Amino acid sequence: MFELVGVSPVENCLAGFNSSILAYGKTGSGKTYTMWGPANTLLEDKIINDQQDQTPRANQAFQQLQYQCHCSFLEIYNEQITDLLDPNQRNLQIREEVNSRVYVENLTEEYVSSVRDVTRLLIKGLSNRRIGATSINSESSRSHTVFTCVVESRCKSTADISSFKTSRINLVDLAGSE
Ligand SMILES: Nc1ncnc2c1ncn2[C@@H]1O[C@H](COP(=O)(O)OP(=O)(O)OP(=O)(O)O)[C@@H](O)[C@H]1O
Ligand SMILES: [Mg+2]
């Protein structure tokens, strides 16, 4: 699934374009499984340890290409936005800046420099989601969740001139409908 729909949004994001991947469909159809993997997989030490191998390489790439990434994770439930990285922050407001950028006020943004950092944030956020049982799915998502990774890149063309790009990729796991 990642090769089919995930690769080009990631490449677009690194090239400076915004991208979103949305999982949409009825309850129990596999949206959450498809977005985040089988339940508790992220929690297994094995996965985190396996990814240690990738970390130095990922860090190296970040340094050479001068990328900086930060992530946020929010939930929309009953029209209210909750910060999944700090669930005490409820009912956050959507704001628009003069330049038309739309953002969620006071949403936690954590800097990441490796796959391991991102995995930690996913584990933390997913544990704070609201779930409930439907007749079809015992662990049904009762909210929409949006994981956002913002990539800031700096490209140094000459000694004096550098260009900056900011782009974001949104991973959206929508609540199911019955
Ligand atoms: N490809 C798959 N392989 C094995 N199990 C799967 C697969 N896709 C989904 N499942 C299982 O099916 C059940 C329902 O999947 P999931 O929770 O992802 O549905 P959902 O679309 O997110 O539902 P809801 O809208 O209620 O949140 C879960 O127990 C999940 O582990
Ligand atoms: Mg779900």
Describe this entry's structure for a reader.
This protein is of the alpha+beta class. The protein has one domain (2-173): Kinesin (3-Layer(aba) Sandwich). It contains 5 helices and 10 strands. Strands 1, 2, 3, 6, 9 and 10 form a 6-stranded mixed sheet that branches. Magnesium ion binds next to helix 2 and strand 8.
Number of strands: 10
CATH top-level class: Alpha Beta
Percent helix, as a range, is: 25-40%
Low-pLDDT runs: 50-63
Rg over CA atoms, rounded to whole Å, is: 17 Å
Described by strand count, sense and barrel closure, the largest sheet is:
6 strands, mixed
**Helical run tally:** 5
List of distinct ligands in this structure: adenosine-5'-triphosphate, magnesium ion
Give me the strand/helix succession: HEHHHEEEEEHEEEE
Q: Kindly report how far apart the N and C termini lie.
A: 24 Å
Overall shape: globular
What's the mean pLDDT score? 83
Secondary-structure content class: alpha+beta
CATH topology descriptor: Kinesin
